[in-house]
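Bench log. Compound arrived from synthesis this morning; before running ITC I wanted a structural hypothesis for how iron/sulfur cluster sits in the protein. Inputs:
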Amino acid sequence: MKKFKLWILYHYYWNKIDKLQKKYNICNMYINSKNGKWCCRRDRYQEVNGCCGGCNHKNEIKGCETKSLYCKLWLCDIVKEDKKLQEEAKVYFDYLDYVQHRMIELGMPFCFRANFKESFCKEQGEN
Ligand code: SF4
Ligand code: SF4
């Protein structure tokens, strides 16, 4: 598939997952009243910096400043092991599975903490 079509699909899937994330709020994102920073349920229970800690795309106030489909598909163990949540948000988890399979079928570039351009460059071995 041509790079432009992959780019369109990449953004389509990213936007759709983003909408579902907002609807189901599986990560239970909240602004910590003590430090004014975005945190997730893993922060709350384990006092760690979610799955965005140390990422160059993270803005402490605004949150993520890019569109990484890899990150949209990634789930930590706390979310993966929460069976009740998976029942409640079945539509969300099923859609993640669907997109993951589509990405592989299409040969879509998706890399850890990378947007489409960065993922494509990494997979092509470009800088
Ligand atoms: S996947 Fe886990 S660590 Fe990442 S934002 Fe969600 S709850 Fe936090
Ligand atoms: S690119 Fe991924 S790890 Fe980095 S801030 Fe965005 S969602 Fe978090």
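What the model suggests: The beta strands are 30-31, 38-39, 58-59, 63-64. The chain has one domain: 3-124.
ITC booked for Thursday regardless.
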